[in-house]
Design goal:
Number of domains: 1
Order of helices and strands: EHHEEEEEEEEEEEEEEEEEEEEEEE
Number of helices: 2
CATH architecture: Sandwich
Largest sheet: 7 strands, mixed
CATH superfamily: Jelly Rolls
Distance between the termini: 40 Å
Structural class: mainly beta
Radius of gyration: 18 Å
CATH class: Mainly Beta
Shape: globular
CATH topology: Jelly Rolls
């Protein structure tokens, strides 16, 4: 296991970051490593972002030192979305087959979570989000058919996209974790535009299906002073509650959003008018 800690910062402190410091603070540049668990523990809402790519055999999710817990889900809930080949997740002996772009929610109190790939030549890539939990909810497999699907934007504004709400309160009960996946249509590049902030929640974006040789420019910062981070395929970025979180790619792409915080209201956001961004 590789587990690192990222600390929370104020807008005033972030103003002084150069490019390298910005990337060190917010960018998660590597999530998938053969037969290893990679985790980033953020002090924003105690949110954990991670990746597991099992190849040689099953990989067990253990509690990192940061949690001071006997097992990972002793005081947490977990959301999983597979962005690789077919795989299985075994939760206290119950096996779930998780296909590409399918999700699994695992509630607090489950003691053993094992990750496996169906084919070592095309391994599963399990993207993880985890948050503290105050209550136990049932483990549930969420397929594309189970998702709440919304289509927004238009090709004329370069933001025609499909939002798949996978682990949200309208699909299944959770304590505070929410996860979904937004797919940009061909010819569209902008996500989450108009941009917004929400002081009640933090968020993490994970970009994938970025074509070879293409990139995504992720925008962050306060609406009156935005900044950017250039990102590559299968990288994630932490968004503080006071920051916008939006992006534009040199091609269409897909990204997973994960949120945690004070409430489960998907529409709780403070929208920034496009002409007011600076």
């Amino acid at each position: 296991m590789t587990a690192e800690t990222r600390y929370a910062s104020s807008p005033a402190a972030a103003q002084r970051w150069n490019t390298e410091e910005t990337r060190n603070e917010l960018l998660i540049d590597k999530l998938f490593e053969k037969d290893n668990v990679r985790l980033v523990y953020s002090h924003y809402d105690r949110f954990i972002t991670g990746g597991i790519m099992p190849v040689a055999g099953p990989v067990k999710l253990e509690a990192p030192d940061q949690l001071k817990a006997v097992y990972f889900l002793e005081r947490r809930e977990l959301g999983i979305i597979n962005v690789g080949g077919a795989g299985t997740v075994t939760v206290d002996g119950e096996v779930f087959e998780i296909g590409y772009k399918e999700a699994l929610y695992v509630g607090r109190g489950k003691q053993e979570v094992l990750f496996s790939s169906k084919d070592a030549g095309s391994p599963a890539k399990f993207y993880l989000n985890s948050t503290p939990a105050h209550k136990e909810f049932p483990t549930r497999h969420v397929t594309r058919k189970d998702a709440e699907v919304v289509t927004l934007g238009a090709l004329e504004t370069s933001n025609h996209r499909t939002i798949n709400k996978l682990i949200v309160s309208t699909v299944l009960p959770t304590c505070q974790l929410q996860m979904g996946m937004t797919e940009l249509k061909t010819g569209s590049v902008w996500n989450t535009m108009p941009a917004h902030t929400h002081d009640r929640r933090m968020e993490v974006y994970f970009y994938f299906e970025v074509p070879q040789g293409q990139s995504v420019c992720h925008f962050w910062g306060q609406p009156q002073e935005t900044r950017h981070i250039w990102m590559q395929n299968e990288q994630a970025v932490i968004s503080p509650p006071w920051s916008v979180h939006s992006g534009a790619g040199t091609s269409n792409y897909t990204f997973i959003w994960g949120m945690a915080g004070e409430n489960l209201d998907y529409g709780d956001m403070d929208v920034c008018a496009i002409p007011d961004l600076r």
